[in-house]
Design goal:
Elements (H helix, E strand, L loop, with lengths): L17 H5 L14 H12 L10 E7 L4 H10 L2 H7 L4 E8 L12 H18 L3 E5 L4 H7 L6 E10 L9 H8 L7 H4 L29 E7 L9 H12 L3 E8 L3 H11 L7 E5 L10 H6 L4 E2 L1 H15 L9 E5 L2 E6 L3 H15 L9 H4 L7
Parallel strand pairs: 5-6, 5-7, 7-10
Antiparallel strand pairs: 1-2, 2-4, 3-4, 8-9, 9-10
The structure holds flavin mononucleotide.
Length: 385
């Protein structure tokens, strides 16, 4: 599953690709982590395969890896504005993106050089997102200092630094940055940026994509958090979490948080109880840790938090699972309940079980149109006394 650990997905009028939705410019990097050679090469290859005018590839970059040459990395850091230095000092990788002002294959100015190197920069950011990393571009730096320090020829524009690294988990974000890191991402309405056919003619049709691509309309979209509990999986190998995210989005709900946690009941409990006090979260979906081995402890982690149990969920889930896997279904301790006015669903870790639970049970109950009744419409009444 791509994206930084703390998620602030774009709220678009219609779904956009999750790489685009999940990329965002955070400022809290894990100072103890650094990317390996394969990850760094992937970022650079992403830039290399960006489109460019005449295929001229005007982008260049200077690479600074803290683990490879701390002095050079520090020299790069010193070129940043003081405000940027404060947070970029934790980023293990800094790239300085340059743009050639002349074509390399023809004797002419390249007026698209800046544009093309911006495309290469965005490719780096998206590749970072795909690797589960955070990339943050910076125009705030001393160009003259950087040019002279790193001997950049005059014909190249110095476009932007890009800080790349792994984001710190939310619980470790320094107090001073908590508010800004959690602040919602803002965009002006499409109609203010898009003019139809001539300048000044505003866009009126909000949904631009065809009806069938739009996922289901949802009468009452809910904010959903997804937690995968696994000792062996991480964001890149978390198929069940990715499946649940895709399904909930298709149903028109919003992904608010997504994490992978190890099979540690206290860690799971800490994450879930944190989510159950977040106003924007209505539903928590957990997958994994519902079996019977020593490390399987999701029901134990969660049961202590439940105000009410929805016994029917586990009963129905095992019934459906019985149709597919027979007696093996009794090994699943899938359960659901209510915690502080939110619904919690604990599903087994396999993608098959997650899709069974979502498709046959959860989807309909989180849809306010389901008759004779559904969990979604009861959400506002869960905390009635
Ligand atoms: C060319 C460019 C220069 C930027 N310069 C800075 C900067 O100097 N400092 C900073 O904190 N963010 C900088 N940003 C990040 C933007 O503030 C950020 O992309 C914007 O607020 C949108 O937020 P998002 O990337 O999380 O969607 C820059 C972004 C770009 C593309």
């Amino acid at each position: 599953m791509p994206g930084p650990t703390q998620r602030k997905p774009a709220h678009s009028a219609v779904p956009i690709h999750e790489l685009l939705a999940l990329r965002w410019s955070g400022r809290v990097f894990d100072a103890r982590w650094h990317p390996d050679d394969i990850q760094v090469t992937a970022l650079l290859e992403a830039a290399r395969w960006a489109p460019s005018c005449y295929g001229d590839q005007p982008w260049r970059c200077l690479l600074f890896r803290r683990d490879a040459d701390t002095d050079a990395w520090r020299e790069a850091l010193e070129c940043l504005s003081p405000g940027n230095q404060k947070w970029a000092a934790q980023a293990p990788l800094l790239l300085l993106l340059l743009a050639d002002t002349r074509f390399s294959e023809r004797d002419a100015d390249n007026r698209w050089g800046d544009y093309d190197s911006g495309a290469a920069g965005l490719s780096v950011c998206l590749q970072a997102t795909a690797l589960g990393l955070m990339a943050h571009q910076m125009g705030g730096f001393d160009q003259d200092l950087a040019r002279s320090r790193f001997a950049v020829p005059e014909r190249f524009h110095l476009m932007a630094f890009i800080a790349v690294g792994r984001q710190l988990p939310k619980a470790r974000v320094p107090r001073a940055l908590r508010e800004s890191e959690a602040a919602p991402r803002q965009r002006r309405p499409l109609a203010e940026s898009v003019h139809v056919e001539r300048w000044g003619r505003a866009l009126e049709l909000a949904p631009l994509r065809p009806e069938e691509d739009r996922g289901e309309e949802c009468a009452a979209p809910l904010g959903v958090a997804v937690l995968t509990v696994s000792d062996s999986r991480d964001e890149s190998s978390d198929k069940s979490g990715a499946l649940l995210v895709e399904r909930l989005r298709q149903a028109g709900h919003r992904l608010v948080e997504k994490q992978v946690a190890s099979d540690d009941i206290y860690q799971v409990r800490a994450v879930v109880s944190g989510w159950c006090v977040q106003p924007e979260i209505d539903v928590v979906l957990l997958s994994g840790g519902t079996g019977v081995t020593g490390r399987d402890g999701t029901p134990e982690a969660v049961t202590a938090l439940l105000d009410k149990r929805l016994e029917g969920f586990g009963e129905l889930f095992r019934n459906l699972s019985w149709e597919q896997i027979g007696t093996s279904s009794l090994q699943s301790r899938a359960l659901a309940g209510v915690c502080n006015g939110r619904y919690l669903f604990c599903l087994p870790g396999s993608p098959g079980a997650c899709s069974l639970a979502w498709d046959r049970l959860i989807r309909a109950q989180l849809d306010a149109r389901t008759r004779p009744c559904n969990l979604a419409e009861l959400r506002p009444r869960l905390r009635e006394h």
